[in-house]
Amino acid sequence: NAGVMQNPRHLVRRRGQEARLRCSPMKGHSHVYWYRQLPEEGLKFMVYLQKENIIDESGMPKERFSAEFPKEGPSILRIQQVVRGDSAAYFCASSREPGTGELFFGEGSRLTVL
Amino acid sequence: AQSVTQLGSHVSVSEGALVLLRCNYSSSVPPYLFWYVQYPNQGLQLLLKYTTGATLVKGINGFEAEFKKSETSFHLTKPSAHMSDAAEYFCAVAYGNNRLAFGKGNQVVVIP
After folding, report:
1. For residue B102, which residues of chain A lie inside 8 Å, CB to CB?
2. Which of A74, A90, A91, A70 is nearest to A24 (CA)?
3. Could you read off the pLDDT of B19-57 as tens digits, one per residue?
4. Mutate which of B47, B48, B98, B107 to test chain A, going by most A C-beta atoms within 10 A?
5. How sure is the predictor about A99, in pLDDT bands with cuts at 50, 70 and 90?
6. In chain A, what residues touch B32 (CB-CB under 8 Å)?
7. Cystine design at A5: which of A24, A101, B70, B81 (Cβ 3.0–4.6 Å)?
8. What's the pLDDT band for A61 if we cut at 50, 70, 90?
């Protein structure tokens, strides 16, 4: 009964390094969403992907951030040249179908930038 | 644009007392509304949702919420708080392609 799996759970990077966060959706789910949670804030939508396609990246910062969901393997959120402001919890969610609004969330990856 | 307002970032409630968390939304289309709960260092878990039909929605752990279109509200209640209800609660409204707009959350503290 595997839910949405995210790794690593905790990641520490120094300014200028790269961070890669991975997400395996629930079995049978082909829609993946990434959200970011800053301290004292709710979750903010970043990007929505289906297999091999980015459907909506309207919430992604224009620079340094990218996401992919390859045909094989997990979805990856990549942050290049991290800065302290990137420190946050990054949550992945998946759904079986679009339009229902019901998402299943992973436990998150907490990025700390020193 | 869809948005959600949750007032009062921290809510204290005595064990056994009523839990009431307020949520007001803005939506240009008939809304799908959700309440999620987040325990420390965990992901979000769905408490309940409103899509269509009955406006009083029952969820897990004894929580329920009522959709009131005239008030654009979707307040969450539980008649009697339990210590295990201490967590952060988020209201959300769905828009296009399962994207959710979240409120800032309510941190609930239960006082013995």
Report:
1. 35, 42-44
2. A74
3. 999 999 998 777 899 999 999 878 889 999 998 888 999
4. B98
5. low
6. 100-101
7. A24
8. very high
